[in-house]
Amino acid sequence: MHSLNYHKASNASEAARLLSGTEDGKFLAGGQTLIPAMKTRLAAPSDLVDVSGAADLRGITVSGRDVTIGAATTHAEVAASGELRNVCPSICEMAANIGDPAVRHRGTIGGSIANNDPAADYPAAMLALGATIKTASREMAADDFFVGLFETALEDDELITSIGFTAPEAGAYAKFPNPASRYAMCGVFVARGDGGVRVGVTGAGADGAFRAGEFEAALGGEFSAEALNGISVNAEEMLSDIHGDGVYRANLVSVMARRAVAAAS
Amino acid sequence: MSTVSMTVNGKAVSADVEDRTLLVDYIREHLRLTGTHVGCDTSQCGTCVVHVEGKAVKSCTMLAAAAEGAEVTTIEGVANGDLHPMQRAFNDNHGLQCGFCTPGMIMSGIDMVNRYKAEGRTLDEAAIRHELEGNICRCTGYHNIVKSIAQAASEM
Amino acid sequence: MSEGIGAPVKRKEDKRFITGKGKYTDDIRMENQAYAAFARSPHAHAEINGIETSAAEAMSGVIAVLDGAQLTGDGIGNLICGWAISSKDGSPMNMGAWSALATEKVRYVGDAVAVVIAESKEEAQAAAEAIEVSYNELPVAANIAAALADGAPQVHENAPGNVIYDWELGDGDATAAALAGAAHVTEMDITNNRLAPNAMEPRSAVATYDDAEDHYTLYSTSQNPHVARLVLSAFYQVAPEHKLRVIAPDVGGGFGSKIYIYPEEIVCLWASMKTRRSVKWTAERTEAFLTDAHGRDHVTKARMGFDSDGRIVGFKVSTKANFGAYMSLFSSAVPTYLYATLLSGTYDIPAIHCEVLACYTNTVPVDAYRGAGRPEASFVVERLMETAAREMGKDPAELRRVNFVKEFPYQTQVIMNYDSGDFEGNMNQAMEAADWAGFTARKAEAANRGKLRGIGMACYIEACGIAPSAAVGSLGAGVGLWESAEVRVNPVGTIEVLTGSHSHGQGHETTFAQVVAERFGVPLDSIQIVHGDTDKVQFGMGTYGSRSGPVGISAIVKACDKVEVKVRKIAAHLLECNPDDLVLEDSQVKVPGTNKALGWHEVGLAAYTAHNLPADMEPGLKEGAFYDPENFTFPMGCFVAEVEIDPGTGKTDVVKFVASDDFGVIINPMIVEGQVHGGIAQGVGQALLEEMVYDESGQPVSGSYMDYTMPRAEDVPSFVVEHHNTRCATNPLGIKGCGEAGAIGSPPAVINAITDAIGNNDVSMPATPAKVWAAIQASGTSMAAE
After folding, report:
1. Nearest 5 degrees, angle CA A40-CA A44-CA A48?
2. Are A160 and A217 in the same domain?
3. What is the pLDDT of residue C478?
C-alpha cells in the first residue's frame, strides 16, 4: 500500500472540508472494497477521509413507508433493523447476504453505492426501489446515479449522505453468487409498488447494474413468475468471463427474476 | 506518522505508526501479537479476523487509525483464565490441523454464536456453514470446524 | 490402553494454535531484519534486454538491489529436478536451465528478475516497482496444445518442440492386441484441471548470515527442511551443508507446495550474506498464485477394452502433462512413476500401456500437489469404469466387483505389487453406509423439489511411502526415500523422539507419541516429538506422499526396538532375571507375577549413572534408526458421492459423501478421519470449483480468491468416514498412510454422480454451475427445470 494521510471526520460537512484540502483524497467508509484495491496498489489516494464515524451519516429512519438510510450505515445494521424489516424486509434480507459477517460489520450502503461495483448487491436494490441518493448539495434518482462500471454521477468530492425510498408493497432479492468471490454473479431485485413493478439486475450486465424493462412490463401485467416465461435479457449485453458466458448469465437473470418474484408474491 | 491508541485484550496500547498501517500489521508488527494471521490480499480468507467493539472484522481490511480508541480483542485475549469454550471445542473436536486459519475461525465462531444468541436464533449446521463464508480452511474440510462451533454454541 | 495405538487422543499440539501462540515463519523477527521484495516478470515469455536499478537503489530504506547476473556471478547454481526420466528411445529428459533470478529470458508471469532488500516491507515493495526492466516480448505457449503445436514458441532451446520426455510404461503390443480383440471398448478424452495448492499460510523465509561463524540459518515454510538443506548446499551452493541450519517451525499446511526449494529461499540466503542482514520474505496471496508450484494439468486419451463378460482385457492411456516453464523438484516423477504405475486401479488388468508426453509451457512450474499423479490415475480409471458400465448397460458396482483384484500379493502390469486389501469389502461398506439401495427413492423425492439427483462411486487405490530407496533409485530418483528417527530416553525417564518427518497439520506430535507410549508403557505426556530443525534432527526426508505413517513411524518403531533391547538388558541385569521375561507397562519394567519390577525412570537413571550396567554396555539410553521400506503401501477405498443439481442454475450441491477406506492399522482415528475430511474437500474442490486458468498470452486469469474458487464450508457436506482395514504386510505396524486418499478418490466419485444426475457424460472438471447448466441444455434432461 502506498503512503497516505488519514483524517477522521465526525460529520458530513467536516468530511467535505477535510477532503477539499487534499491533493487526491478519497472518502473512506467501511473500506471493504477500497482497502483491498489499495493493498494491491490499484488505488493510491493521497489522503483518506474516514466518514465511518460521522454521526449524521448513520442510522435508519422509517416514517410510514418512507425510509431513509444514512450512507455510513453498515450492512449488518441494515440487516438487523427491525423497524426497516417491518416495512421492507427484502432490503434487510439482501443486506444480510452481502459478503460475509465480518465484511457486513464494516461495509456501508453509501460505500457500496458510490463504488458501483458491477457485482455489488445494493445497486440492484436501489434501481428496483426507485431510491433517491442524497448528497450535501443534491438528490439523484437511482436511474440517473449509476452510470457504468464503477462509475456514478457523483463528483469526485461529493459525498453521499443518505439514501431514501418508499417501501414497496412487495419485494424480494434473489442472488446467485459468483462461486469464487461470492459477489453477485447475478442478483435480481424485484419490487412492486405504487409506481408499478421495477426490476434491478446486478452482477450480470456488461455495463453494470441495470433495469430489466421487458421484465417490468410483463410483471406489471401479472405479478407472477409465469409472467416471465419466454422473456429474457440480451445475452450479448451480459458479462462473459471464466465463471460463465453471456448466455449463462442471461439465463441466470431469468431464473433469479422468477425466484425473486415467487419469493415476493 | 500518527500515534494510534486503543485497548487490545483489555490493555491500553499506543504506537506511532504510518497512516497506511493496517490494523493487522499494528497487531502483529507493533504489538507482536502474532496469533492474528494474513492469508490473502482480497479480504476473503478470514485468518485475520479480530473483534473490534465486540464485532468480528477483518483486520487486514481496516486501518489501524480507524480503530483509534476502540476495544480490540485478538485470539490471545479471548480466554478468561484457561481456555474460551470455543478454543476448547476446537481441541475437543479436532477442529484444526495446521492451525493457520484457526485463530480467525475461533474469532468468527465466537462472533456468530454471540450474534445468534443475542437475536434468539438457532445456530444449526447449515447456519454455521453459511456464517463461515468469510473463513477459508484448506486442511479440515470444515467437518470438524462445524462440529467445534456447534459444541461451543451449546456451552457459551 | 487409552493413549496408545487406536485411541482418538486429542492433539497435544493444539494448545499453541488455539491460543494464537503458534510460531510460523512470518511470526519470526530477527535482530537487524530487512525485507525482500521481488521484481517479477509481467510477461509470460520475453527476453531481458536490460535491468535498470539506479532509481530503485536511490529510494528510501533500500539496502541493496540484486539481479541474476550478480547471483550467477557469485556461483549460485541453477534449480534442479531430482528425478531423471528417460524417453522411450532411451534419451535423457530435456531439462532447461532455471536460475533463481532470471538472466536472459523470463518464461512465466511471476518469474523473478531482481530483488530489493530494504528496511521495511513497504520500502522494498516500492523499490521493486521502480526497477525498470526492458523486455523484448516473445510469442507464448500458454498451454499443452499451444506448446505442442507445429512452430510453437520454444520455452527452452534444449527442449525441441517443448518436449521434456516421451515416456512409456507397460506392454504396447499386448495392449493393442487386447483392445483389438475386445468385445467392447470405452474411449474417453479426459482433462485433469490445473490447481493452485493454496496452503493457508503463504510461503515465507527468514535468512540470516553470521559472518563471525560463517554460518547461515534459514527459517522456511518447508515440508522437508533436511532436503532443503541438502539441495541448497549441494546444488545451489549457497552454503556448505555443515554451515547451514534450516528450521521449518510451525508450517501452515503444505499439500506438496512446500516440498520444493524455491528461488525465494535461495535468494534470501544469498542476500543475507551479501547485505550482512537478516532477510525476510513472505508471499502475498497474489504472489503465491504466481509462484507456488501448481498441480495436475493433464490431457489424456484413454481406451479400456472388455470381454463379453465385462472383464477388462486391456487399457491404453496416452497422457500429455504440462510442466510449466521449468522442471520443479519432483515434477518428472509425478506423471510417470506416481501416475502410470497406478493405472491398474483396484482391478485385475492383463494388459496396460501408458505413454506420457511431458512438455514445457509459459506458466509457473507444475509439481506434486496432494495425491500427485494418483488423483489423475484414479480419475482416468474410475471415469472409464463408470462410463463403460453405462455404455454396456451394466451396474457400475457389479462391473467393478467382477474386475477387482481379489488375491494378494498381486503383481500389476505397471510395476506395483499390491500387498493386501479387500476391495469388495470396502465397496460393500461404502454402498451400505450410503444407502445405495435407497437412491431411487431419494432421486424421485428430489425431482419433486425440482432437483436433479445423482449418485456416483469411485474405487481408488494409491501408493504411499515413496520407497524403497533402491527401487526408486533404479527408476531415476536422485535421493533415497527412507526415514530416520532417534529415540532418547532421558535420565528421568522422559522421552524425546527426533524424527525426519515434518508435521504441518498432520498431528505428529500426538500420533508419534502414541506409538512410543504404547510401546514402552509410559504416559503420553512424558514424550516430546522433535522435528523440523536440521540442528536437532540429523537427517530426514520430510513429509509428503502420505509417508509419515508408513515410513516415519516405522523408523521410530525401529529405533524403539533398539531402545527396548537395551532397556531389557539393563533391567534384567538389575533384577537378575531373563530379559525376555520382562514386560514394559504402567511405567514399569517388570516380571509379571513376581515382585521384580523397576520404574521406567529407574531404568533410565541406571543407564545414565552407569554405576551398575551389564559388562561391556555403553552408558546412556539413546538409539537411532534409518528405516527403508521394502515396498510402497497401498491404501485403497470406495467413495460414494450423491449430488443434487439445480437445473435452473447448474449449481451442484454434494448432499452426501461416504468414504470407506483401507488404511491398514490406524494409530489415531480422529486424526486419520480429519485427514480424510480435508482430502475430500480438496477433491470436491477439484471436481466442482477449482481451476488455475491462464489466458492465451500466459496471463493468469484466476490469480486471486476473487476468481480461484476455494472450497468453503457451504460447498461441502458433513462426511461419513468408515474404515474397512487390512493390515499392510510390508511394514512393522501395518500402516498404509492416509494423507492423500481423500483427494485421490473424490473427484471421479463427484463427476460420476453429476453425469448420472444430468444424463450427460460430457462434463469436465471443474464442473462449475455454468458448465453443468450448459451440459443440461445439451442433453435436454432439464425435466425438472422451471
Report:
1. 115
2. yes
3. 87
Residue A143 lies in a domain: yes
Look at A105 and B57 and tell me if their CB atoms are within 8 Å.
yes
pLDDT tens for residues B119-152? 999 999 999 999 999 999 999 999 999 999 999 9
Q: Which residues pair with C365 in a beta bridge?
A: none
Cross-chain Cβ contact B20/A80 below 8 Å: no
Assigned domain for A63 exists: yes
State the best of A4, A5, A6, A34 to mutate against chain B, taking most chain B CBs within 10 Å: A6
Is C556's pLDDT higher than 50? yes
Q: Supply C541's cell numbers.
A: 526426508
Residues C768, A2: C-beta atoms closer than 8 Å: no
Distance in Å, alpha carbon of C69 to nearest chain B alpha carbon:
32
Mean pLDDT over residues A213-226, rounded?
96
Decide if B115 and A36 are in contact by the 8 Å CB cutoff. Answer: no
Residues in chain B within 8 Å Cβ distance of C285: 39-42, 45
| Most distant CA atoms of chain B, gap in Å | 46
Among A1, A76, A103, beta carbon nearest to B58 = A103
Closest-CA distance of chain A to residue C504, Å: 26
DSSP state of C78: P
Q: Which domains does chain C have, with CATH numbers?
A: 29-138+201-252+258-291 (3.90.1170.50), 298-466+631-784 (3.30.365.10), 482-627 (3.30.365.10)
> What is the average pLDDT across C478-500?
95
Residue A86 sits in a domain of what CATH number? 3.30.465.10
The C-alpha atoms of residue C386 and residue C374 are separated, in whole angstroms, by 18
Written as nine digits, the cell of C103 is 538472466
Q: What average pLDDT is seen over chain C?
A: 96
Q: Point out the residue among C17, C27, C705 whose CB comes nearest to the CB of B102.
A: C17
Chains B, C: CB pairs < 8 Å: 175
Distances in Å between the alpha carbon of C707 and those of A242, C196, C703?
A: 8, 12, 7
pLDDT tens profile C505-540: 999 999 999 999 999 999 999 999 999 999 999 999
Written in H, E and C, the secondary structure of A44-87 is CCCEEEECCCCHHHCCEEEECCEEEEECCCEHHHHHHCHHHHHH
What is the dotted CATH code of the domain comprising B85-155? 1.10.150.120
Average pLDDT on C589-593 reads 95
